[in-house]
Amino acid sequence: MSQQRLNPELDAQKLRENALTSIRLGIEDFERCQTAPSSGGDPARALSAVRNLFAGVLLLFKYKIAISVDDPNDAASLIFTPPEVLPQSDGNGGVEWAPKGKFKPTTIDVGTIKKRFEGFEINVDWKVVERLQNCRNHLEHLHPATTLGEVADFVAELFPVVRDFIQVQLEEPPADILGTAWQTMLLHHSFFVDTKEQCRKAWAAANVPDGMTPWLDESQCEECSSSLLTPGPLFIDDGASVERDEDTFEYLCLACGNTDLIVPLIVETLNKAHDYDPRDGEEPSVEDCIECGHGTFVIYEQNCLWCKTELEYTECWICEEGLGQSDQDNGGLCSYHAHTYEKAMRE
To answer: Alpha-carbon distance 308 to 151, whole Å?
Structure first.
C-alpha cells in the first residue's frame, strides 16, 4: 500500500489559519477574564483563554513542521499520528518491524512535536513550553475565579515563545500576522516584566534569607495564583524584616489585593516543588531543620535554605554511609555503628 493512501490529507495553510485564530480567540478570552464583571468581563473565560492560546502555539509548531518538507504527503506523515510498528516474522527465522494499519486522523502530541523539532533542528525553549503545559493542566482542575492571576502569568510567559518562534522560525513580523492580539500581548508582557522587577526590588529590602529567594520568586497568591507579590507597604515603612518578623510579615498581591503571611507561603512553595509519594517508594527530600525549625532543610544538599545550617558529619567514618540530621550527635557514626559502639562500651 502506498504512503499516499496511508496518510490523511493535510492542508498546511489551514494549520496556520487555525493557529492564528486560536491565539486571537485566546487573547480575546484573556481580556474578558481580566475585566470586571460589572464592565462586561467574565472570569470563566480564563480557562478557555489558556486552552486557546496553548492550542494555537502547538498548531504553529505543527505548521512549521509541515512546511519543513516539500512533499505534502511527507508533511502529512510528520503531522498525523503514525500507525503502530509491530514485530513480525521475516520468513527466514528472523524478525522485521513494520507499521500495522493506517495513519490515524489525530495529530501528534507535545512529546512527538519535540522529537520532530529535534529531527529537523527546529529550536524552541522547551522548558518554557513544558512549564506552560503544566500550567494549562493545572488550570483545568481549578475554578476560574481562583486562576485569574495565573492566567496573567501564563500570557506573559507565552509572549517570548510566540515572538521568537514567529520571528526566527517562520521569518515573519508577529504584528503582521497577529494584529491587535499582538499588541495586547506586548503591552501585557511589558507591564508584567516591569511589575515583577519592582516586586523583586521591594523584597530585596525585606531581608528574605538568601536561600529562600528563588522560592519567593516562585510563590503565588493563595487567592488568585498570581506571582506579582510585593511586601505589604506598612512592613517596609516600619523597617520590618521577613527573617526577624516572620509571624507578622505579610505580602500584598498586586493582581487581586489579597494579603497574608509570606513565610508559610515560601516554605509551602519549596515543599510543593519537592513533593513525593511514599507509595511509589519515594523518600522526602526536604525536612524540618533541627536548628531553626523551618521545613527548609534540603536533604540531598545537606543544608538549610533558611538558616544555612550544614551537617558537621556527612558520612559514617566506619562504613561511609550517608548521615542525616538525626545522626549528628553520634560523633561521625551511623546509627548502627553508634549503637554497636555504645554496647561495646557498656560491656
So the answer is: 35
